[in-house]
Here is the input.
Amino acid sequence: MNILVVGGAGYIGSHMVKLLIEEKHDVTVIDNLSNGHRDAISKDAVFILGDINNRSLLDKILSENFNAVIHFASFIQVGESIDKPSKYYNNNVTNSLNLLDAMIQSNCKTLIFSSTAALFGEPEYIPIDEKHPCKPINPYGQSKWMVEKILNDYEKAYNLKHISLRYFNAAGAAGDASLGERHSPETHLIPLVLQVATKQRTEITVFGDDYETPDGTCIRDYIHVTDLCSAHLLALKKLIKDGQSGAYNLGNGNGFSVKEVINSAQSITEQEIKVKIASRRTGDPARLVADSTLAKKELGWNPSHSDLHQIISDSWQWELSSKKHNE
Here is the structure.
């Protein structure tokens, strides 16, 4: 297939491009590099430096007869979205609308959309399945939920077929340590913990150790980025085959506490990881765990890297590799 990956220089996008190239697909990437990295994109992909707010550029790109678009280009920091909602609604919603309109114009009507578990808000039950009410509690989650609703309207009006994939906590790195997390600033727990192990940080802050969980710390569902990308490819194949739009939750179904992550990282890195306990953050639920039964049933998805040890080990190899390259 000929596939356009929007935001393909970012963390998940670059891993997706790697998989598509390995599967012998033709790939074009558009990314403004605001959060992505040029050197993360496979040399076998066509790269276009640009922003999806540029309609004329999108029209030109989409004239190349793509079979599908995979859309990763979003801002993702919950806290920042609360402080800067305009930034999030403009990029995540308005620019997505621009992309969808350009797709309709060029008659490219197959989209895989990178969504989020943040659209569920405070969980009403655990594990969270697709029937769980969507009640986002921050502009980031709200922006993703808006796009999902727009997609449903666009299908009715323009026959735009789509699958939205709602991630829980993406983690891990490529098995060959060629790609990994490089957010700036970094907000994800596993890379932050590993940066303490490499002495880039002095300590890791744990926000609350008095939750109603076995060890008092929050429990989250971590999904390996490799498994995440395989779900995208399976979703794309399904969408092209049967034209059935939908939405799927992606997690490994197992929650791991903050303390479990820290303890596992200490074991793998053989480094002491200093911990600072702070008060709870507003809006942090005690547990967030996915029910991915539907994705397994309908997509044939079988996550094979769901073990916490594997996720942290791959992240650690990437951390060591990237640190060496930066020295």
